[in-house]
């Protein structure tokens, strides 16, 4: 469970999006972002367990991950800037909520996690090690229990972030709201440019190789 919390705790694109959506739209939208990320984590775990992690060694897969990761995070940075420029006074008594908005947040979280190369390599490295150790010392039931507690840790962290984002919305001023979106935009653009550079490096490696 502590491993799950440690995996979810670092501030990355997913956490930034949870905070931003939670402040703007409330608890359920922030949690939906996190649940989308957890769905991607479950897919990665299944791929690792099935032993098909070798697909990450394919150069074309590397290129696509870095390219789509850069483009999508750049789009999120643009959305943050747009929200910062056109932000209105926050209504602390009524935060807009709808089922479609929650679904959209879930899909956003899923997309961020699926195309984030750092997230993918992190899971295949960390969980791959955990799985390797578990298969040597325990049964399938033991592996499922360990995996369940990792997910419980991630869910716990996501709930904490969602609650804090919701509580923060009650004391936010318009100016502070702008600063949050501005900070998110800067970090998201950093990740976007980082993946763009990695994409160019991978292209050069393929070209020279």
UniProtKB/TrEMBL annotation:
Keyword field contains Lyase: no
GO molecular function terms listed in the Swiss-Prot or TrEMBL record: amino acid transmembrane transporter activity
Superkingdom as given in the UniProt entry: Bacteria
Keyword Membrane on entry: yes
Signal peptide interval: none
Chief subcellular location: membrane
Residue ranges crossing the lipid bilayer per the database entry: 25-52, 58-78, 101-123, 143-164, 176-197
Annotated keywords: Cell membrane, Membrane, Transmembrane, Transmembrane helix
Annotated coiled-coil segments of the chain: none
GO cellular-component term (any): plasma membrane
Cell location: Cell membrane
Stated name of the protein: LysE family transporter
Lineage: Bacteria, Bacillati, Bacillota, Bacilli, Bacillales
